[in-house]
Amino acid sequence: MCQQTATYQWPKDWAQVRTDFIQTFHLPIVDYYDPLLSYAMQKFTIDIVKLDDKLHRLFGDYEQQGLSMHDIIERNYGEAGLNLIEQLL
Predict the structure, then answer these.
(1) Average per-residue pLDDT for the chain
(2) How far is CA 63 from the centre of its chain?
(3) Considering the domain boundaries, does residue 1 fall inside one?
(4) Which of 82, 65, 84 is nearest to 73 (CA)?
(5) pLDDT by residue (tens digit) across 22-48?
(6) What is the CA angle 50-39-5, rounded to 5?
(7) What is the structure's pLDDT at 73?
(8) Distance from C-alpha of 11 to C-alpha of 56, rounded to nearest angstrom
(9) Count of domains in the chain?
(10) Share of the chain above pLDDT 90, in %
């Protein structure tokens, strides 16, 4: 079950973050996780540019269609996806 409204506690909730990310995006978080920034900020963070690159590979050049990354995540992964990403930024 995704902790979409709860805040993840760094570093003890790593297993839950991994599970939620895979369940929501069907992608391994290790490809997007930023360990240095996470350590510096003491919270789980992802490299949003890497995720954006992956979304472009999956869904094409969505900006040319007038869509944002937010729009693509909402359209394909719902509120759960948006909430998860918000927690990981």
Answers:
(1) 93
(2) 19
(3) no
(4) 82
(5) 999 999 999 999 999 999 999 999 999
(6) 70
(7) 97
(8) 30
(9) 1
(10) 90
Q: How far is CA 41 from CA 7, 19, 60, in A?
A: 14, 21, 32
Q: Which residue has the tokens 């359209």?
A: 75
Compute CA distances 20 → 40, 64, 66, whole Å. Answer: 22, 30, 29
- Inside any domain, residue 58: yes
CA distance 80 to 22: 12
CA 16/CA 74 separation, integer angstroms? 21
C-beta separation of 33 from 46 below 8 A:
yes
Whether the link from the prior residue into 11 is cis, omega within 30° of 0, is: yes
